Amino acid sequence: MASTADPLQTTRDLLDRPATLRHGFLDVLGKSVVSETPTLAQRAMNSPLVATVYERVWRPVAFYVASGVTTGAEQSRAAEALALSGAHRLLDIACGPGNFTGQLARRLPDDGLAVGLDISVPMLTRAVLDNSGSRTCYVRGDAGTLPFGDETFDAVCCFGALYLMPEPFLVAHEMVRVLRPGGRVAILTSYAGQPAPVRKAMNAGARVIGLQMFERHAFTELFTSSGLVDVQQQTQRSLQFVTAAKPG
Ligand SMILES: C[S@@+](CC[C@H](N)C(=O)[O-])C[C@H]1O[C@@H](n2cnc3c(N)ncnc32)[C@H](O)[C@@H]1O
Fold it and tell me: Which keywords does UniProt give here (predicted)?
């Protein structure tokens, strides 16, 4: 099959609101204030310096320490869990510098499209520079109010980000809303599964920088009660990977 003719135009057609083209990505937020009082973690994600070192240094080191899983293994696990070889449209929420969007786009069929959505201009600017291709497009938007209609994507993921969002459960519901029947979701987020004293210290430390630690059942129950099936979970140190499918 032919590759997606124009990923920018195809993505624009999928959006449910107007967008302006900015530094190579589509922006549905413009100058609207996203948070008046950003946390330390949110400020870091808006720093051009962090955006520059994130993919090659910050991400591989921090996530390996947190889970014992390498980035390459994470990418393969994600592609399999999302059944990408049979998917046409992937939405990567909180895509950062496109470090998963670009890799996962390669696992889609030739006519597939991977849309990376993030709120940070520096992260998206890097995504366009470092992880663009004929099957990718980037959008600046808020994960809490996804700018897409219901049942738009065959696969929806959100890695390494729910714990720094003010309303993570709303975002998870948004993921389910934009997922097509028969499609699959995958998330990677924090896991508060340590023994009580360690866990208390980790929760306190996380709160200081603006991160949330989630209980084992927080997302498995949300997905189940939203009607998803085949809900599976892996926990590794302080991270959990959860996948599920929308009945076809
Ligand atoms: C740690 S990075 C994760 C990047 C990538 N998904 C990964 O796994 O490495 C977290 C990203 O979440 C984004 N983010 C935070 N709040 C957001 C929101 N409300 N909507 C969209 N993106 C958001 C940040 O801008 C940042 O790029």
Answer: Methyltransferase, Transferase
